[in-house]
Every structure is written in structure tokens, then in C-alpha cells.
Amino acid sequence: MQVLDYRIRPARPEDLDGARAVMLDTVYRDFGTGYVPQWHGDIVDPAGAYLAHDRHTLLVAVTPDGEVVATGALDSRGPAHPPNPRSLAERYPSGTTAQLRRVYVRPEHRRRGLALRIVRELVAFAAADGGYRVVYLHTDPAVPGAEAFWRSIGRVVLDERADGHGRGRGEGIVHFEVPMTVAAGAVSR
Fold this sequence. Notes:
The chain is of the alpha+beta class. The protein is about 35% helix and about 25% strand. The chain contains seven helices and seven strands. It has helices at about 15-30, 35-45, 45-50, 85-90, 115-130, 145-155, 160-165, and strands spanning about 5-10, 55-60, 70-75, 95-105, 135-140, 155-160, 175-180. The radius of gyration is 16 Å and the shape is globular. About 35% of the residues are buried.
């Protein structure tokens, strides 16, 4: 395996096409859903979703030649009901909840610590904001490696498979809280 010197940084306008490609490839290849407008509008307009708001961010991992190979985003929208259970929407309200989104790594760049580095940076961003009280995310456990990764750094708050809230392909979604202490390992920009 070739070792590359990846750089994690906030996305710039010139990174958006590459970031969008990573995201779209992931929803088609890993999720099997393809683009779904009500779920993936931020993928089409990452500048509007993440760069236009002071409390939102989009991070990218880039290779030395500038290729975007991983993404991670954070916004101030809590989980919506529906499709999420009402209890989650009430527990994680918009404005005080930092929701992690689009933590995706191209398959050929996985298992190199990129996702963890990105998550640490996102959590550090949330902590520095001062207005977020909690970091939340959800994942599809059918995506290889996703559930194990999030369990290694977060705490399950709802497993829809066990609680009868299953949807989509029948697997159910797993919801997590990530402690702000994860940011302690943040990398410098």
C-alpha cells in the first residue's frame, strides 16, 4: 500500500467538484440508493449547505496533487422527524446539535486514518463554535465498516434495527452521539 501525505482542510470552491464526486460515488456505490433529492440536496449544493454558513463546515482530504479523496461535513440541523423518530428530533434540536454528515472516503484510500482525522477536526470545529451542546450522526449499518467505525468513537443512542423503526432496505439506521473529547486528537491545519 502506497503511503500518501494527505492534508485535511476546509473545502475551497475549487474542491467542490471533487467533494461532490466522492459523495455521489458513495451514495451510489456504498448505499445503493443513488441520489435522493430529499436526503442529498447538500451534495448537489455543498457551497450553500456548508460554506455559506459560519456554523457549518465541509472538510476534504486531499492528496499531494490536490485530488479530493475524502469528505466530512458538519451542520447545525438536528435529525428531522420524519423520517427519524420524534424522540431523536426532540433530543437533538437544530441550533444546538452539531450533526456530522458525509464522512466518506474513497475505497482505495480507506484504512489510512482519514475518517478519524476528519471526525476529530469536525468535532474540534463544533467545540470551538461554543453554541453546540452535542455532536450527533446516523449511519446505515449495511455500509461495510461504517457501524464498527462509529461504535469505536461514539455511543449508540438508538439502533432502529432493535427498536422496530427500520426503514429503507430493511436494515434500520443506527444513531450515535460523539463526545467532544474526540477532538483532543485533532490535527493541525
